[in-house]
Design goal:
alpha/beta; Rossmann fold; about 475 residues; Beta-Lactamase; 20 helices; 5-stranded antiparallel β-sheet; 4 domains; single chain; 5-stranded parallel β-sheet; Helicase, Ruva Protein, domain 3; elongated
Length: about 475
């Protein structure tokens, strides 16, 4: 190749294009308009197994026929007179990204082809490795999810907890899963009563049969009877001509979970009581009783005892279903569980939406201070919203709704009592939470004592008493 010179700012510079090309990592191959090689970069042999001396003066067709270049970019460019790009695998298992460019003389006449090849072997390997890691991660996630969501003798993934109060609740549920007593789950909306009901079923001897979940408040009153008890063909106008299997019958051998039992119409309370007493149902429009064997679990966020007194819930049904009550704690009663629940939901929704989001430490602190009136359901919904609406990979406190941030910043006391417990224990638990909250917000016992209105010595003793780190 010739040396060329240019003048920049009055200085003459000489350019040796061969040296420039040979200093590149890319492989360069130049032919004339017939495909005869005019030039190859020094690294050509490393990738194609042919030295530049062997190539120069020879037509590309000779080597194409021997299988060196397939596909042949040069042939395609000569034919089309346009830029062409493709991937090539070399004899030594390297992968190249090849681009062929037509070049023209001063008169605009097509003069030949310049091929520039870039070694992308490592990039391809990296992509393959990333794909493998992603597939492996998906497999692990599916296995973890499967472990908890399938029927098994262990746990359900949604039962994510480490607090003492939730540990006691789940332990009781597991003990009750081994017997067939009727269980009523009590607690606010969104605490996870349905999850606990399924946990009881999955750990029972009935776990090979159906778990049928019915929300008594979600089915219109004029339809709930046919949904629960089923009907024979022609039972009423508009009925399916084949008849219909009722949900109670569907649960035969398994577990029937009646959520929001307090919303069950009074006339159906009588029919449900008969089912529990006689262990039989009769479909609408039918006359033949059908034997059933079910385990009943109910749930409510209402005061059934009060409803009995008000004659809106049958007393005989109340005593039939209220054999063993389980109080499911609210999320504000199990603050220790918030961070692991958040991490769990972050993983769930990042996987679902193919995102890789992280939550800042400040967000975790805000979540632990918030009251969560909607409990775990509210937490789950908020995490999903933050994952799909936040910009960037890190979710910060700026993304959290003002309604939550402002409720935390308020100086107004927000202590709530949800059920009757031993007063000294309640006072002690309230004190523990206040000390824990103050310690999270302030780093010195002087400041903690100031905000709690106690002496510094008392603050130190209480921190030690509750083993708060």
């Amino acid at each position: 190749m010739k040396r060329h010179h240019i003048i920049i700012n009055g200085k003459e510079l000489y350019l040796d294009f061969k040296s420039i090309i040979n200093s590149m990592f890319d492989i360069v191959h130049v032919t004339d308009q017939e495909g005869t090689t005019l030039y190859c970069s020094d690294n050509y042999e490393d990738f194609f197994g042919i030295s530049p001396l062997e190539m120069i003066g020879k037509n590309i067709e000779e080597f194409y026929d021997l299988g060196y270049f397939k596909p042949s970019i040069t042939k395609q460019v000569i034919s089309s007179k346009k830029k062409v790009s493709t991937l090539q695998n070399t004899f030594n298992d390297r992968k190249l990204f090849v681009e062929g460019f037509p070049y023209y003389d001063a008169s605009g006449k097509f003069s030949g082809v310049v091929n520039v090849s870039t070694d992308i072997t490592n990039e391809e390997k990296l992509i393959d490795e990333l794909k493998a890691v992603k597939e492996l991660g998906s497999m692990y996630f599916e296995e973890i999810n499967k472990k908890y969501t399938e029927n098994n003798n262990e746990a359900h993934l949604s039962l994510v907890f480490r607090s003492e109060i939730m540990t006691q609740t789940v332990d009781l549920a597991k003990r009750l899963s081994k017997v067939d007593s009727s269980v009523t789950l009590l607690g606010e909306s969104g605490v996870g009563k349905g999850v606990l009901a399924r946990y009881i079923h999955e750990n029972s001897f009935r776990n090979k049969k159906d778990f049928v979940h019915i929300n008594c408040g979600a089915i219109p009153e004029n339809l709930i009877e046919s949904e629960l008890f089923g009907y024979n063909k022609g039972a009423f106008t508009g009925a399916d001509q084949k008849g219909k299997l009722g949900l109670i019958e569907k649960a035969n051998g398994g577990t029937l979970f009646l959520d929001e039992i307090g919303d069950l119409p009074i006339n159906l309370q009588v029919k449900l009581l008969n089912v529990l007493q006689e262990k039989q149902i009769t479909r609408i429009g039918g006359s033949k009783p059908i034997d059933i064997d079910i385990r009943l679990i109910t749930a409510t966020n209402k005061d059934l005892k009060k409803m009995v007194a008000e004659n809106s819930f049958r007393e005989d049904l109340y005593y039939r279903i209220f054999v063993v009550p389980i109080e499911v704690p609210s999320l504000r009663e199990r603050v220790e569980d918030i961070s692991i629940l958040v991490s769990y939901f972050m993983d769930i929704f990042s996987q679902k939406y193919l995102l890789n989001k992280k939550l800042s430490e400040k967000c975790y602190k805000i979540f632990e201070q918030y009251d969560w009136p909607g409990n775990v359901r509210e937490l789950e919904n908020l995490v999903e919203r933050l994952v799909v609406t936040s910009n960037g990979d890190v979710i910060t406190s700026d993304h959290i709704p003002l309604s939550i941030s402002e409720s935390i910043d308020s100086d107004t006391p927000n202590i709530k009592v949800n059920h009757i417990i031993n007063l000294p224990k309640a006072v002690e638990e309230t004190e523990r939470q206040l000390v824990q909250m103050a310690l999270k917000k302030y780093s010195t016992t002087v400041k903690i004592a100031e905000v709690l209105g106690i002496s510094q010595a008392s603050a130190s003793r209480k921190i030690k008493k509750y083993s708060i780190q």
